[in-house]
Here is the input.
Amino acid sequence: MKVFSKLCLAVTPLVLLVACASTQEKAATPEQPSTEQRTAPAAQPEATPTPAPDHRLHGSPLEDPNSPLSKRTIYFDFDKADIKPEFRPILQAHAEYLSANPSVKIVLEGNTDERGTREYNMGLGERRAKAVKSFLTLQGVRDSQLQTVSYGEERPVSMCSAEECWSLNRRVEIVYR
Amino acid sequence: MRHRIAAVAFFVCMLASMDAAAILTIVITQGVKGALPIAIVPFGCDTASTQPPENVSGVITADLQRSGRFAPLADRDMISRPREASQINYGDWRKLGVDHLVIGRVCPAGDGYEVRFQLFDVLRQVQLTGLTYRTDRNRLRRTAHEIADVIYETLLGEPGAFATRIAYVTEVTDATGARKYSLEVADSDGYNPRPVLVSAQPLMSPAWAPDGNRLAYVSFESGTPAVYVQDVNAGSRQLVSHSPGLNGAPAWSPDGKKLALVLSKDGSPNIYVLDLGSRGLQQITRTLAIDTEPTWAPDGKSIVFTSDRGSKPQVYRITLATGETQRLTFDGDYNARPTMSPNGKYLALVNNSGRGFNIAVMDLATGAMQVLTESGRDESPSFAPNGSMIIYATKEGTRGLLSVVSVDGRVRQRLVLEGGQAREPAWSPYLK
Here is the structure.
């Protein structure tokens, strides 16, 4: 037990380090206030339904579920990074919005399915994110509005080992800041 | 809040330390022709009333079996169970077709134990070696692995790799659906895992420094991939690469002074070498393709890597002094994730020749490739430091597992670690 206690003492600062680093993440943590906590019982103005701090997004086409801008995921064929024709209108819509709002920035997150090796898939995910970025810049969006990141196969949305899951993982997610 | 996190972390860590179960499933894929028949008689102690906390002879037996070079006799087939040399009836063992016999005992001594073993040649009826160890209860498994190494080396003339470690990544999804990633270090058989880093974001590509004290790895904790080097014992770490784009696939040079890395800061993923002392960066490959997954030759003069410059991933070698590059793989339309054997003569890699992704070994002198596994879902091979076994990641259903295959493909042993998914294993160097 002594050896493990020493190890625990060594590991705890690390977990602290990571716990602190991870609170800077955009992912929700248990400490993030929910609407229930923000709304007190009596005379409080109605809490906004989403915690989004960016006032520019209120009432904007980005929140319209009927607009093509609500589609934020572009899918790809196996081992390919080219934009399929069916996704061009969606990207066109995002390009128009971004051109009209040059202070708005997005991150393009590239992903792959699980097949193949992990670090190679980091490259493939990046290739996909960059393909979307190229398309958007060709449509007039400024380079400075577009950031890319690859998660390779590390962030699947669907876990089975069959085409119905793989096809959902081969994607670029458009994330508005 | 920080105090609470620290207290919870400490508690969780203590819990994790106590739960060290790993279940081994041995799959013998071919006959054990060529494997040495050996009997390891259960160790006991005539003067002790209680059993020691570890089954030392059981650990030795599992180690020797996993190497693929030995065929240990099952306990139930043993006619007699000698504990002393004087109790050995060599005829019994000849009858069972056993060429070598191991006997021993584990007796309480002071706060700990005295472990003694003797290895006999059944045909010549002589002792080949015998050693006595003083150890404590926490190091009984380590002592068993050291004994397995001595037996292995005495009979095969090359060092064993049982008293070594493995590093790997686990992923657990909790009840809320949140994922937790952990970089773990365990004994080479999967026992005694402990976390060296825990994160809410993915971790990848652990790589042992040649001195066995540091691990390089990729972490997404900042939101984008970055490479860190961490001291496994002290826990301290440094960020070594966080350029825009990819920072990945760290691989230590044989002298431990440099890291080969994959960076895409100049437009596409290419291989660079970072000098850890001077922080000088040298670009090695310069293509628009994906060049990734570097592994060093033991003389430090060339790097073998994956590239899709020929449209699909294949394995190439680049000579560092000249930049001359040569394609190495021609079997199958996908060959990637090469890892060099310690003697520089073989590569283990991931191959797809139409039956999914499997582990293959390639002889660098002849170019001949042998596919060792068959699940179609295998990746991340890593050689044991004696080159005799390969640990790799595989899947069953949605569950990630680690498996060890002997380099001749004869024996495959699955390590099932309780809870969560395990992947990306890296076998440590010999521990000093």
The first strand of chain B starts at residue 22 and ends at 28.
